[in-house]
């Protein structure tokens, strides 16, 4: 039994922490998610990039609750309404993801959230996981 | 560059037309525009199509050629352009440049669409790709288009204290305008109570605060000054036509991105803000000169936020402008007298050209019950996937 990311090469779990596969510009240090082949900052001349793992915590910029089931490409099973948020992570990258482990009516803009993972369905080999944001431990939800 | 004029505009009413092929919708719209211009198909020297993502046509979107082969094989130049929901503005811009260059005297821009039902999903056949935002937004989190708009609306509530009733009232305003437009699909006026009682789709946005998807077609025939004098009627000149793309650091929650790099000082929805400001500059006007504006109101949030982003109002001021009647007929800045996307439902590639139809009808005084009295300067603003922005200013 091992967890597998819902999209290969997008997400890893190392040393207990979740890490999204991003990219960093070698010159201007802009961090991108998902991975990019070149830096798109117009004032950056070098454009060369390197792999960069996005991890840790961030601040919730905004959120919504999806009340209708999305098209079938999203294979959450069983399905129920869930929260989606935009989280400002370190190095100025804003990442979208599900918000988990908090009641839908307790989510607030400005709250600090940790990058984590959760299963969205089970297959024979174990859970299929995606990245989520969860309240930092002990924040009291 | 020489001056360019609108010779005629036309549309097929918006709705669900399962029995009318896309080419049929398109021919209806172009016929109507040619009628206003007193031209026949064989008089068109060029046709620019806002090409579709949803209906293939010949070679996945060669719609100008398809029309030529369906109705008039007289050798006109055919151009097919993309730009997603801003494709109509790109088509208009291209037709404008063809006339302005002096090489063509009569060119039509056309958009026609038949939309699939429900959430706009990932195009069939797209490859799985861990670097593709559109793949990741569906596969990793199931983020629908309304979810993006909802997060903008939620942020506005946080920053400006916008209420649920204000968002609903913006939707009600569009329906009130749309009720007076025979081309609109939803022509029944609504109430704040009805909007708030409609199902919550993506908090804080209810079903009646989000544009539906529709079938429809619109066309604009542009021409030289000589052609405009021949066609007769008021001279409607293209004061400016601009297309733009986004700027690095734009803080907008842009469909379909799952990661962005917001930076302080960069305009929100920069592709459209850039187009609007350059359109003002090229037309030699400012915000105070605009008699009406047609904007891409995919949701009620857009009605409140977009005029602020362009600089018509201060951030957060839109709520008060709506409440005091400044956004309707007789107000400071009538928004979407057509009824907007909320009354039409979006027929993606046709939508920006429907906007131009409304601008022209308003300037000619042909807008009936939704007429903005004495309108002399009218403009549009539209946004398309891929960070496409467009803005067109017409003047009488």
UniProtKB/TrEMBL annotation, chain A:
InterPro entries: ChsH2_C, NA-bd_OB-fold, Thioester_dehydratase-like. Pfam families: OB_ChsH2_C (PF01796). Residues 55-116 form the ChsH2 C-terminal OB-fold domain. PANTHER family: BLR3430 PROTEIN (PTHR34075). This is ChsH2 C-terminal OB-fold domain-containing protein. It comes from Brevundimonas variabilis. The lineage of its organism: Bacteria, Pseudomonadati, Pseudomonadota, Alphaproteobacteria, Caulobacterales.
UniProtKB/TrEMBL annotation, chain B:
SUPFAM superfamilies: Thiolase-like. Residues 269-385 form the Thiolase C-terminal domain. It comes from the Bacteria. GO terms for molecular function: acetyl-CoA C-acyltransferase activity. The keyword Transferase applies. Residues 18-226 form the Thiolase N-terminal domain. CDD domains: SCP-x_thiolase. Keywords: Transferase. This is Acetyl-CoA acetyltransferase.
